[in-house]
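Reopening this ticket.

The earlier resolution said the output was attached, but the attachment link was broken on my side. Pasting everything inline this time so it's all in one place.
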Amino acid sequence: MKRNVELVVISDVHLGTYGCKAKELLRYLNSIQPKILILNGDIIDIWQFKKSYFPKPHLKVIKKILSFATKSTDVYYITGNHDEMFRKFTDFELGKLKVCNKICLEIDQKKAWIFHGDVFDASVQHSKWIAKLGGKGYDLLIVINNVVNWFLEKMGKEKYSFSKKIKNNVKKAVKYIGDFELTASELAIDNHYDYVVCGHIHQPQIREVTNKKGSCTYLNSGDWIENLSALEYDHKEWKIFYYDDHKDLLQDEDVEEFQDINNSELMKIVTNFSQ
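Inline output:
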């Protein structure tokens, strides 16, 4: 039984990389029926795109998204830094799917400002090659982490996250996350938004931010590399959905809902968009 949800936000899926948890994301997407689905950047990782590595589950995620867009769901693809090639297709529409750089929505008489967030990242804006190198290093760290966690599971021990450990213990990383959240929130307050919704930093969050000029709710959808998280808005309430908290309740559905395009044709489309 699918859950009806008014609004769902996912980001930082990084399809086409070894760290992407496409199977888990597909199970989640198959469990919901959203009125609005917002893909808030870094869905397909063009920076690390390789035709030699784009497994079937990754293609199925794209098919599922297209399936939403051909039915009753409004789908917004907001571009991020890892899929910045799509920015040349801004305002492109296919059925109910629209490519954009940011969106502003009114939700129950409140204004929401939604964008990926890489605009705040100086390393991306001014030293792109450094950011790309960092992305490759992060991807390698995730691959190594996956191998370690496989052995931990075999030994009956809990999984361990290298990058979460780094984020939580390195002062610069903690400061960067705090600065990111504060900058986004202060800009939202200055522009009279009630909500500001970002991705980019792989840190799921919902928190109120208040300054002398007012207040807003800062939200971040996290990622589908480590946190496996999404933002959901329903019945006038925001929640963070964590896959690991619900995975036993999600059923496997291996149904091809978008038969018009087969995997090889879809792969050609992805390749053409990445060039």
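Reporter confirms the inline version is readable. The chain has one domain: 3-274. Helices lie at 22-30, 56-69, 122-126, 128-154, 162-169, 171-190, 243-246, 263-274.
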